Amino acid sequence: MHGKPFREYSPNQIMALPTPSLEEWLPADHPVYFISDTVDQFDL
Length: 44
Hints:
By secondary structure, the chain is an all-alpha fold. It has one helix at about 30-40. It is built from one helix and no strands. It is flat. Helix content is about 25%, strand content about 0%.
């Protein structure tokens, strides 16, 4: 069974927002970094 492939995840890509990186908005201890690291380990 072939479904549509997931788009490549690139958290450091330049965004169409005034600030190009979420790292500039969020403190280093924000939970989003834990979630990002966890999701990166999934075998999708």
